[in-house]
Amino acid sequence: MRCPFCKNDDSKVIDSRSYSKGFSIKRRRECLKCGKRFTTFEMLEENIFYVVKKNGTKEEFSKEKILKGLLRATVKRDIDTGALENLAIQVESELYESNSTEISSEVLGELIMEKLKLIDEVAYVRFASVYKNFNDVKSFVEEINGLNRKGEQV
Question: Taking the model in full, what pTM does it have?
Answer without folding.
Answer: 0.61
